[in-house]
Design a protein that fits this description.
The protein is an alpha/beta fold. The protein has 2 domains: 178 residues, 3-Layer(aba) Sandwich (Rossmann fold); 278 residues, no CATH class. It has 13 helices and 15 strands. The strands form 3 sheets. Strands 7-6-8-13-12-14-15 form a 7-stranded mixed beta sheet, with helices on both faces. The protein has a 5-stranded parallel beta sheet with strand order 2-1-3-4-5, sandwiched between helices. The longest helix is centred in the middle third of the chain and has 34 residues. The chain is elongated and about 85 Å long.
């Protein structure tokens, strides 16, 4: 069984008087995590309030906003309360814990909520503040019950420890198992099969350029073929290939992943294709040219031009209506302004703690075997590629990990009068070893892309993520 997202965040909302229960929850997550990783390929990640900055006042840039964003769709929310409901967040009228509960309830269709209330014991003397806190807890419990959210009562931390592990395992299993049909349905909407595949005659080919075919401006690496079975592939391209293969496995599609120089590949032969990494994939660019010659409205192309001896710059040309926009990748600027050493250097783990961006394209074209015969045999070409490797990685990530978003993007553009063909321009954001955001920027202006590549804008973005950067030049 494969899952839609490789990570399930487990958010723990609780004030400071249930510390033992919070630690028991973290321990339960750590016990289950390796089992879920081995059986389902997902990672359970504990998110506790100690990991966030203290809260004093509230506005649109407040840390609490960042906390609420961590309670994302397809996560588990564990709320634990006893005598306290927490400290009010100035400007909101609620405590941070109440805000977290309310956010989870508002998104309960995609968030699994586990709530626990330790029974309050009668106490003769309570301060006004203690009574107020207890009453807040009772009101929150009643609100949950009115919204038909299960509330579990317990007496001692040991009773809680006995419950949290099986409850958490059941909630995570429900997420893993319930998401699969939705993902498959989404992938079926985007990945359509040509008539050749329906006749069972040809597998879909996933075609990628190895580093032995580096593209313009890059040297061919020398390899000892007595020690290798396959040629090197760019790491980011490899991540995208994995994502596409995962999608094909879920769809039950027979597929074959091949290099651009594989004997299995004949671009003149009909069949479904997924072309990966278009800038270095000369055969993919040739297919795009052929599609244009046949009258297909192709809105993009990848070009390169020399910027110094032996070095070329790749850029993307994107057409909006009758106007063409040249889009450069800001990735090199992000990396240089993140204090990376110039030239060749040994890898350092800090390099993965990087904030950066790139641009990419995901496209689908329906291709008739005979351009003059629109109702006969047909097949589909898919293009997944970025200006740089990060863009290709992000485009693949969208396919496998955000398939619902991919379908929404495709349907949005189809509703504007497009045919079965889909062409999406994407902005990919990387943070801390991961793709964290892939957004549709197909309708953005030339000014938008020019600003995104400016030193001023990039420095501003990096200053917002100081924890992941060794230093910023000039600071």
């Amino acid at each position: 069984m494969h899952t839609m997202n490789p990570m399930i965040p487990v958010f723990v909302a609780s004030p400071g008087d249930v510390d033992k229960e919070r630690r028991a929850t973290e321990l339960a997550i750590n016990v289950l995590a390796p089992r879920f990783a081995r059986l389902f390929g997902v990672t359970l990640v504990p998110l506790l309030w100690e990991q966030f900055a203290p809260i004093s006042s509230y506005d649109a840039t407040h840390p609490q906003v960042g906390i609420l964003r961590r309670i994302q769709p397809f996560s588990v929310f564990v709320g634990i309360l006893w005598n306290r409901c927490g400290t009010p967040v100035q400007g909101s009228g609620e405590t941070g814990t109440e805000m977290e509960f309310n956010h989870a309830i508002a998104h309960r269709d995609t968030i699994s909520i586990l709530s626990y209330f330790r029974r309050q014991q009668p106490v003769r003397r309570l301060s006004r503040e203690q009574r107020r806190q207890r009453d807040q807890v009772k009101r929150l419990k009643r609100r949950l019950e009115l919204r038909h959210v299960s509330t579990n009562s317990y007496d001692t931390p040991s009773q809680f420890r006995a419950r949290i592990l099986p409850d958490l395992m059941e909630a995570c299993l429900d997420l893993v198992l319930s998401r699969e049909p939705k993902k498959i349905a989404d992938l079926y909407k985007f990945f359509r099969s040509g008539s050749h595949w329906r006749l069972g005659t040809r597998p879909l080919l996933i075609v990628y350029p190895p580093l032995t075919d580096p593209g313009p401006g890059h040297a061919i690496p020398r390899l000892d073929w007595r020690q290798r079975l396959l040629p090197h592939v760019v790491y980011e391209d490899f991540k995208a290939i994995q994502d596409i293969e995962e999608a094909m496995r879920l769809l039950g599609r027979e597929y074959l992943t091949v290099t651009t120089d594989s004997p299995s590949l004949d671009i003149a032969e009909p069949g479904d294709r997924v072309w990966v990494c278009i800038p270095r994939n000369a055969k993919a660019r040739r297919v795009l040219e052929q599609l244009q010659e046949q009258g297909t409205d192709v809105r993009f192309r990848f070009d390169s031009k020399p910027i110094s001896r032996g070095v070329s710059e790749t850029f993307l040309t994107w057409r909006q209506r009758s106007r063409e926009i040249e889009i450069r990748s800001p990735l090199a600027k992000y990396l240089s302004l993140s204090a990376r050493p110039s030239g060749l250097a040994r890898w350092r783990p800090a390099f993965g703690h990087t904030y950066c961006r790139d641009y990419a394209v995901v496209a689908r074209f329906k291709v008739p075997k005979d351009p003059q015969d629109q109702v006969g045999e047909f097949y589909y070409h898919y293009f997944v590629g970025g200006i740089r490797g990060l863009g290709t990685w992000g485009a693949g990530h969208l396919v496998d990990h955000q398939s619902s978003q991919l379908v929404r993007m495709a349907e949005h553009h189809a509703s504007r009068g497009d045919t079965e063909d889909v062409q999406l321009l994407l902005e990919v954001t990387h943070e801390n070893y991961r793709i964290t955001r892939v957004r549709d920027v197909s309708e953005e202006s030339a000014h938008f892309f020019k600003e995104r590549c400016s030193d001023r804008y990039i420095r501003k973005q990096l200053e917002r993520h100081p924890d992941w950067l060794p230093r910023i030049p000039g600071k």
